[in-house]
Write a structure and sequence with these properties.
- The chain is of the alpha/beta class.
- The chain has one domain: Rossmann fold (3-Layer(aba) Sandwich), CATH 3.40.50.
- It is built from nine helices and eight strands.
- Strands 1-2-4-3-5-6-7-8 form an eight-stranded mixed beta sheet, sandwiched between helices.
- Helix 5 packs across helix 6.
- It is globular.
- The two termini are 36 Å apart.
């Protein structure tokens, strides 16, 4: 697979290129960055999101701090194995097993793990399943709940404005039409994002890029929400996760309000909270990259040379 070099303050990209990796009965598209001899940071995307949720320039900033970074497409996203739209044939437990299998296939031992939204639940499941392997967790825009956990009425749900938008009737986009997908993505992205940091042109550029490299964009948009919830109970075992944890959350998240982050910090024994003022449930705004990168480097052992 080809990979275009990107420039970060002059130097060429440290990406080793995207490649398909056999993991059990699926293929996952993975892209490592940096020196494999440095501590490895595995980046896990959220529901329906490919590796592109972590911008390559963001990955390069982590590499500059002395990390070996791996991002990858979850099954049914990007270039990884895709299932018929509406019939995923897998569950949350399989997505967790995919992450473990990918690390094994890439011969990665100890690892730091960062997960966004649903990826935060996957990250915590990894820490519970292989505690000797997971050195730290970074949970971005996540929640104490995992798909297999019982619902908790004390945790705030989405805002009234977001519920009204999500419940409104609107025609389904033509999933074969790039422009229609981009329009639909930007429409929803505007509702997910904090009003201070939504950029329509960036949202559309991201959506177009994702459309171009996704096997089946309809399946990618639909199947994670239909996947089996699995049997992995996570929240009841939070006290067992004793590695360092960094919780990063936007104060204007309309889907998982900020209280979700506060509860994560209350329940995880060794957790710290980084609040992003005015940020919603969205890709990390570039204005916050330096802050977030610095915090991740700290929780994963400190920047190179520190």
């Amino acid at each position: 697979m080809s990979h275009e070099d990107v420039t970060v303050d002059g130097p060429k990209s440290t990406s080793h290129g995207r490649r398909l990796v056999a993991v059990g009965d699926v293929e996952l598209c993975a892209e490592p960055f940096g020196n494999p001899g440095d501590p490895t940071l595995l980046l896990i995307s959220g529901s329906s999101s490919p590796m592109d949720a972590y911008h390559p320039l963001f990955c390069e900033q982590l590499v500059a701090g002395g990390r070996h970074v791996i991002r990858y497409d979850n099954r049914d996203t990007g270039e990884s194995t895709s299932y018929p739209a509406g019939r995923p044939g897998y569950g949350f437990d399989d997505i967790v097993a995919d992450a473990i299998g990918l690390l094994d296939a890439l011969e990665v031992g100890d690892v730091h793990v960062a997960g966004g939204s649903m990826g935060g639940a996957v990250a915590r499941a990894l820490a519970l399943g292989q505690p000797e392997r997971v050195r730290s967790l970074t949970l971005i825009s996540s929640t104490p709940l995992a798909p297999g956990d019982p619902r908790d009425p004390t945790l705030p749900g989405p805002t009234e404005k977001f519920r009204a938008f999500a419940g409104a009737e609107r025609p389904e986009p033509d999933w074969t039409d790039r422009d229609a997908y981009v329009d639909n993505y930007a429409l929803w992205d505007r509702q997910y994002a904090g009003t201070r940091y939504f950029d329509d042109s960036e949202s559309r550029a991201y959506a177009g890029h994702v459309f171009d490299r996704t096997r089946d964009i309809h399946a990618a948009s639909l199947n994670h929400g239909l996947a089996e919830r699995g049997s992995t109970a996570i929240r009841s075992r939070h006290a067992e996760i004793d590695c360092p944890v960094l919780v990063i959350h936007g104060t204007a998240d309309p889907v998982l309000p900020f209280r979700h982050a506060e509860v994560l910090v209350e329940e995880l024994p060794n957790a710290e909270l980084l609040a992003l003022p005015g940020v919603g449930h969205q890709l990390l705004p570039r204005e916050f990259w330096p802050t977030v990168v610095s915090a991740i480097l700290t929780v994963t052992g400190g920047p190179r040379g520190a």
